[in-house]
Amino acid sequence: MGGDDIGDAPPTGAGLDPIPRCPDGADPSLATILRLMRHSRQPMFVAWGPDLAFFYNDAYAPILGGRHPGAQGRPFRQVWPEIWDDIWPLIRQALAGQATWSENLHLLMERHGYKEDTWWTFSYSPAHDEAGRVAGMFCSCIETTGQVLAERRLRENEGRFRALLDAAPALMWVTDRTGYCTHLSRSWYAFTGQTPAEGLGTGWLDAVHPDDRSASKVRFLQAVRDRTPLRLDYRLRRADGVWRWAIDAAEPRLGPGGEYLGHVGSVLDITERREAEEHQALLAREVDHRAKNVLAVVQAVLRLTRAPDLPSFARAVEGRVAALARAQTLLSKDRWAGADLRTVVAGELAPFLVEHGGAESRATLRGSPVVVPAAAAQPLTMLVHELATNAMKHGALSVESGRLLVTWRVEDGALHLGWIETGGPAIAAPPARSGFGTRVLDGTARAQLGGSITLDWRPEGLACHITVPLSLPQEEDAAIDWAG
């Protein structure tokens, strides 16, 4: 074999021969190449001479499959006939003295008795003899089939994942591990009017309200840095320029090995829900305020009501509290948005007309539809109740021949309510003193409603005119002062 015998090392694996002995009379350069290949764990081979005799190391043997060990020393073309046409241009280039590099090159191989798709990253380099001539080619290679297929599966999964995101009704987004937004769903672009060039990266923040943008960015970057779940509330600009409240919730996205890949999130328009919650809170405050006001009214009724005996006192108090209860019921049914004036008046008159055997024809209600503010409904109810109570005791509703006309109109932002009684007992003169009912009328119209009231004690019956501004303040009601 000669002095270049390098084949006396033991096998490196079961069933694998060591690299071959250098052929007798071989060029020393070939012996040097084989010696370098021997202990490398990188798959390598050299193709030498006119027939490109194929010599490979132990790390390359598994690549050959059933062709090992018979492939040692055979012509390269006979070792890999099925891929020869694919690699010959690269071999020819190396034999011409030019090194080549191929990355993830696809080759259809039959190394295990069946055709299979494989991918390879390798270099072909010219191999020179002792005289400096190109005598063959040297290859260092690695099979990348698993990596290529894994990346392909990953891309396919990413494609399916993004298709699912695009099909979702929510606005969806995905980032990489640096926080760079790599995908926004079609629903995001449809909602915001942004284009991919505008929205990807950190451009999506441009659609967030300027007052919410800085805090949202800080919390977003913190979640990316800490790789933690994220929840943001902010105003998002719709394509038509309208700002909508949104919840942006995201979770870290992990790879098969648990490695952090970025975040995936969804954005939901919660404007209607937020408005409903704010309205509910407003209603709760309004109910609390009204409840306190009702208690104050009840306390005043109890303190100031006068009657000759206990049953009369009880009836007077019950009537006034019942009027308050009817106002509360009417307002709660309409969610404290206001009350229909006709309903308020008719509701207060009904108990008096029914209780005293009258018919609805005894009272005529005339006026266009008017919704009075919630703050005015309760005081107006008390006004009508006191007028009806007085009419039942002393006026038109105290006799069967009595008649009542209630009219209203809205003029210059104020409600004008008229109360005209006829057919009742003749009135010789106005009352000598003001009773509790009169004080309630005056205090309610002026102090609570900020309006005015006039009482005209005509011989044929009382004529009352009440003016109430409809643009009432929404702060605390005026203090109840019926004592004056």
TrEMBL record:
Reaction equations catalysed: ATP + protein L-histidine = ADP + protein N-phospho-L-histidine
Q: Does the keyword Nucleotide-binding apply?
A: yes
Spell out the Pfam families in the cross-references: HWE_HK, PAS_3, PAS_4
Where do the record's region annotations for Disordered lie? 1-22
The cross-references to InterPro entries, in alphabetical order and at most eight, read:
HATPase_C_sf, PAC, PAS, PAS-assoc_C, PAS-like_dom_sf, PAS_4, PAS_fold_3, Sig_transdc_His_kinase_HWE
Q: Which GO terms label this protein's molecular function in UniProt?
A: ATP binding; photoreceptor activity; protein histidine kinase activity
Q: Does the keyword ATP-binding apply?
A: yes
Q: What start-end ranges are recorded for coiled-coil regions in this protein?
A: none
Q: What is this protein called?
A: histidine kinase
